[in-house]
Amino acid sequence: MPLVGSFPHTFTFTELGGTNNLLPGRPLEQSVPFTPPRGAASMAVLRGFGGAFIHPNQTLTQRPLGQFVVSVGLKSGSLVCRVRLTDENMDDAISIWVEAYVAFIT
């Protein structure tokens, strides 16, 4: 199946924290629409991701990151990214970036 194009996108999730703001297991989701080339099939690809705990002023803080889950997929003509925070200290501010793209194949 030849690759006939792609649609790259970087998702950024910045949550400033606070008591009960980032409860463990709380999913965060963003989506962006795309238009595939005529006759092409689409496939979501996760290229990379990273995350860091930050201070409320969005500067980096030193602390163990804990865990988060990242997934990408397609839904109704949109590239969808979902992150789920799984650390016990979810009141801390966090920034997560996800690089994904849609590959168009024929």
Provide a descriptive summary of the structure in words.
The protein is mainly β and 106 residues long. It has one domain (3-105). The protein has no helices and six strands. It has strands at residues 3-15, 27-33, 41-53, 68-75, 78-85, 94-105. It has a three-stranded antiparallel sheet, with no helix packed on it. Strands 2-5-4 form a three-stranded antiparallel sheet, with no helix packed on it. Strand 4 (68-75) and strand 5 form a beta hairpin. The termini are close together.
Please describe the structure with a list of short key phrases separated by commas or semicolons.
single chain, 106 residues, mainly beta, 3-stranded antiparallel sheet, 0% helix, 58% strand, elongated
Outline the low-pLDDT stretches.
none
Estimate what percentage of residues fall within beta strands. Answer: over 45%
Within the largest sheet, what's the order of strands?
Answer: 1-6-3
Number of folding domains? Answer: 1
Helix and strand pattern: EEEEEE
Structural class: mainly beta
Distance between the termini: 6 Å
The residue fraction in helices comes out at under 10%
Question: What profile does the largest beta sheet have?
Answer: 3 strands, antiparallel
Cα Rg: 16 Å
Number of strands: 6
Number of helices: 0
Estimate the global geometry from the Cα principal axes. Answer: elongated
Overall pLDDT: 84
